[in-house]
């Protein structure tokens, strides 16, 4: 007896265009492949923005000093070496041309001849004399004579230009070395931000700390919400920046950063998170950029450290683990627990919903007062009608009695 054999047939789905793939339902598009999150500012503080199609490149040359300082170290060192080498070669060539035109190279060893530069017998010796002149080394073997006015003028020009080159390049290297970018490496931010209740209010919090013993002077903290928006007129604004209040009105944004601090943002009606609940937070495409600024105590230069938190790095219903403990005569900070959090009881509702629920809890008292006032207002017309009817009845009885008495 023959049996039916089931053959496995694979049906390939047609390849859809990009727009059609984006319009697929979330259960098919997002569950199959997690969409990569594009950051505006990376966790290490570097901005993830590249400038392209810059046609006015001459603006970089107009501020050549800042351009050189902003270059990478390998290019900076290469330019540093090349500037000095080209300068020495250029003036060495001019010294050799002067000696060649005057005929000093044809009278080498002639005691009766007065050369422009003594003991200059070729291009190599001219190059060495150029180095000695610009660096003011002066070994004493090659020296300019007073019988060469063109050489004296060239000596003055090379001395002045050499001083300018030294001031420019040494100043550039000094600024490059003393930049406080590495100081920002010891300013740390917590890996995650948290949302929980604090003093009966829903708050967004993150932690900052300084690993060095030398403090940051005049430290201040700022936060920005990076999220695309569409205006009422239909204008689309990509990566719109909105301020997040972290204590600007109360002065809490000015930090005394001796030990790790928890920066708190109260989610109120002015907060951009006013209508965002726990379920909505997981679906939001937003990024919170935090900026810590201050002056380095040792050098007095301004230092800035940055970090960011995307929606997946904001933990709803968590708090930071305490890291400060009191020891024998001092406080100790345990940086092993700097990024640790623990779960706490937090409602999943938005701050707006919590405020509405709180107002509803107080509503029965207000409703009882208003209802009583309305009932009294409704009863007053009925009572007035009854009083009017009683008065008319009484007036009618009095009139009847008067008529009877007359009869």
From TrEMBL:
TM regions (residue ranges): 77-98, 152-175
Principal cellular location given in the protein's record: membrane
SUPFAM superfamilies according to UniProt: E set domains (SSF81296), Voltage-gated potassium channels (SSF81324)
Domain Potassium channel inwardly rectifying transmembrane: from-to ranges: 41-180
Region (Disordered): 1-29, 372-407
A Pfam family matched in the record: IRK
Protein family according to the UniProt entry: Belongs to the inward rectifier-type potassium channel (TC 1.A.2.1) family. KCNJ6 subfamily.
Protein name in UniProt: G protein-activated inward rectifier potassium channel 2
Primary gene name: KCNJ6
């Amino acid at each position: 007896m023959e049996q039916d054999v089931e053959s496995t047939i694979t049906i390939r789905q047609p390849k859809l265009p990009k727009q059609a793939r984006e319009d697929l339902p979330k259960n098919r598009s997002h569950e199959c492949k997690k969409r990569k999150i594009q950051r505006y500012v990376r966790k290490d503080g570097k901005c993830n923005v590249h400038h392209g199609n810059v046609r006015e490149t001459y603006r970089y040359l107009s501020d050549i000093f800042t351009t050189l300082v902003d270059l990478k170290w390998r290019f900076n060192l290469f330019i540093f070496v090349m500037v000095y080498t080209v300068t020495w070669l250029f003036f060495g060539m001019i010294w050799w041309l002067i000696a060649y035109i005057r005929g000093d190279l044809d009278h080498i060893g002639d005691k009766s001849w007065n050369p422009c530069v003594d003991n200059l017998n070729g291009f190599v010796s001219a190059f060495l004399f150029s180095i000695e002149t610009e660096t003011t080394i002066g070994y004493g073997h090659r020296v300019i004579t007073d019988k060469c006015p063109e050489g004296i003028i060239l000596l003055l020009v090379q001395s002045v230009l050499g001083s300018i080159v030294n001031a420019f390049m040494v100043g550039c290297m000094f600024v490059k070395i003393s930049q406080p970018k590495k100081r920002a490496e010891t300013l740390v931010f917590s890996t995650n931000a948290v949302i929980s209740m604090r003093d009966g209010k829903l708050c967004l919090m993150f932690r900052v700390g300084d690993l060095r013993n030398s403090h940051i002077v005049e430290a201040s903290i700022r936060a920005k919400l990076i999220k695309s928006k569409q205006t009422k007129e239909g204008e689309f604004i990509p990566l719109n920046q909105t301020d997040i209040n972290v204590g600007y009105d109360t002065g809490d944004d000015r930090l005394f950063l001796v030990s790790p601090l928890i920066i708190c943002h109260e989610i109120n009606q002015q907060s951009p998170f006013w209508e965002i609940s726990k379920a909505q937070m997981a679906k939001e495409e937003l990024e919170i950029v935090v900026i810590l600024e201050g002056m380095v105590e040792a050098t007095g230069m301004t230092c800035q450290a940055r970090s960011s938190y995307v929606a997946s790095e904001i933990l709803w219903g968590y708090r930071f683990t305490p890291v400060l403990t009191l020891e024998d005569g001092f406080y100790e900070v345990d940086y092993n627990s700097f990024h640790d959090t623990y779960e706490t009881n937090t409602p999943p509702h938005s701050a707006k919903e919590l405020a509405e629920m709180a107002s509803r809890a107080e509503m029965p008292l207000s409703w009882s007062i208003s209802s009583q006032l309305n009932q009294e207002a409704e009863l007053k017309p009925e009572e007035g009608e009854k009083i009017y009817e009683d008065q008319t009845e009484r007036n009618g009885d009095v009139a009847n009695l008067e008529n009877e008495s007359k009869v």
